[in-house]
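Progress report, Aim 2. The chain analyzed during this reporting quarter is listed below.
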Amino acid sequence: MAKRITVIIGSLRRGSIARKIANNALELFPEGFEPTIYEIRDLPLYDFDYDDPEVEDKPTPQEYTDFRETIKASDGILFVTPENNRCIPACLKNAVDIGSKPNSDVAWKNKPVGIISHSVGRMGGYSSQKNLRLALSYFDMPTPGQPEVFLGNSPQYIDDNGKLTPEKTVNFVKDYIERFCQVVEQNS
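Predicted structure tokens for the chain:
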């Protein structure tokens, strides 16, 4: 049975570079892995009242339940994110928070995780990746080691057809995805 990988994009924009990178990454997974993008666009802002058993007039939104169940059913999670103001985008932090509750049933717990970050500047989303790693570190999520993937000056890596280039960069991202898949295999 194929390993299910949930790909979460830290950008809501349809034409974003993060989305283009994620679409290319889908094609780089080895046989035996089934990566699927989960759209976080419609997740309501996190509000603990939804998960507080003492608050009876605010039922948990179905979007929360669907997201949490998808994460729990995944064999691994791949984040592809830009950097916004030296941090992770608000939509991505919202998704992390939704998956972190309720405390008794955290969706992220022990899920293998991979992160590809990018920025239009030279740093390649370094701050967003480090902030995302910090937020996820609480959940004991195994991750591939070095080298990490920071794609600086990222527009140069996407051609007019939305394809990741040059081949050296494609191979670098493919190597990371293969190492991520090894982590998934080791933790299944």
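The mean pLDDT is 95. The helical segments are 17-26, 62-73, 90-99, 126-136, 167-186. These observations will guide the mutagenesis work planned for the next reporting period.
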